[in-house]
């Protein structure tokens, strides 16, 4: 069955600093979103990418993608074997993903959800996620062990004041999860129809349904570009790849 990837790219990227939407910031001169689309299209399995654009920026995103597509172009607009669609997003990441899923044509039984903010994910990770879904998992997340110890705190009554620590989960059993996360289509759609709480990833919605979610090894280069320091790291990774 062919695989589709939904790329939520409608965030403002406030933590990165003021300016244009995060997905349109450049790395090595190329918008992050273009790197993310290429990363998905690099997988032989992925034949459709649905980009979820800022609601007021759909036309701009379309023209940026057109400008970076291969010249000549396939019917899909020059991304090799992969078609690229652009749809408007929403207020939250999960609303943006749901709007992307609304545009999913029939026939795609495996769906990836990949953050535009993870532009440098290696294709091996994309393929490993797809393979695990093909092997029967309803939901698959790339995951890495943590370098830092994690504390659970009580929110401080006043922002910026010390916060009481309430617990220290066993680090050896914690994982930082990345994207693309891969799903059986029906499971992902049911999760988005059923779970309305504020969550930060799609796999956690599937967990709430009581379905089994599994991990595959993630990759350091699939890190999320969130803060200014991440841009410096991303530029360095790109420069090393170009050597
Ligand atoms: O905010 P966070 O870093 O978790 O965002 C992860 C991804 O979700 C980013 O690629 C961002 O563009 C996307 N997003 C979205 N719609 C929103 C907020 C975030 O597509 N309303």
Automatic annotation (TrEMBL):
The keyword Zinc-finger does not apply. The record marks 15, 22 as: Transition state stabilizer. It comes from the Bacteria. The record marks 171, 224 as: Positions MEP for the nucleophilic attack. Keywords: Isoprene biosynthesis, Nucleotidyltransferase, Transferase. The keyword tRNA processing does not apply. InterPro entries: IspD (IPR001228), IspD/TarI (IPR034683), IspD/TarI_cytidylyltransf_bact (IPR050088), ISPD_synthase_CS (IPR018294), Nucleotide-diphossugar_trans (IPR029044). GO terms for molecular function: nucleotidyltransferase activity. Its EC number is 2.7.7.60. Pathway: Isoprenoid biosynthesis; isopentenyl diphosphate biosynthesis via DXP pathway; isopentenyl diphosphate from 1-deoxy-D-xylulose 5-phosphate: step 2/6. It is an enzyme of class 2 (transferase). SUPFAM superfamilies: Nucleotide-diphospho-sugar transferases. It catalyses: 2-C-methyl-D-erythritol 4-phosphate + CTP + H(+) = 4-CDP-2-C-methyl-D-erythritol + diphosphate. Belongs to the IspD/TarI cytidylyltransferase family. IspD subfamily. Catalyzes the formation of 4-diphosphocytidyl-2-C-methyl-D-erythritol from CTP and 2-C-methyl-D-erythritol 4-phosphate (MEP). NCBIfam families: ispD. This is 2-C-methyl-D-erythritol 4-phosphate cytidylyltransferase.
């Amino acid at each position: 069955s062919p695989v589709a990837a939904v790329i939520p790219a409608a965030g403002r990227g406030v933590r990165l600093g003021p300016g244009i939407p995060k997905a349109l910031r450049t790395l090595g001169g190329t918008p992050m979103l273009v790197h993310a689309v290429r990363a998905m299209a690099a997988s032989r399995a992925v034949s459709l990418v649905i980009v979820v654009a800022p609601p007021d920026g759909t036309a701009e995103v379309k023209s940026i993608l057109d400008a970076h597509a291969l010249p000549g172009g396939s019917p899909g607009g020059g991304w090799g074997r992969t078609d690229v669609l652009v749809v408007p997003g929403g207020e939250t990441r999960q609303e943006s993903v749901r709007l992307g899923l609304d545009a999913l044509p029939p026939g795609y039984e495996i769906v990836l959800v990949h953050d535009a903010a993870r532009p440098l994910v290696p294709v091996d990770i994309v393929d490993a996620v797809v393979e695990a879904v093909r092997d029967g998992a309803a939901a698959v997340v790339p995951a890495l062990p943590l370098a830092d110890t994690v504390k659970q705190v009580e929110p401080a009554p006043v922002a910026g004041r010390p916060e009481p620590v309430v617990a220290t989960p066993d680090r050896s059993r914690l994982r930082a999860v990345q994207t693309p996360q891969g799903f059986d289509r029906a499971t992902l759609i049911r999760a988005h129809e059923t779970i309305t709480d504020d969550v930060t990833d799609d796999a956690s919605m599937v967990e709430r349904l009581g379905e089994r979610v599994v991990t595959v090894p993630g990759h350091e280069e699939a890190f999320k570009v969130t803060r200014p320091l991440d841009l410096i790291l991303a530029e360095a990774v790109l420069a090393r790849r170009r050597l």
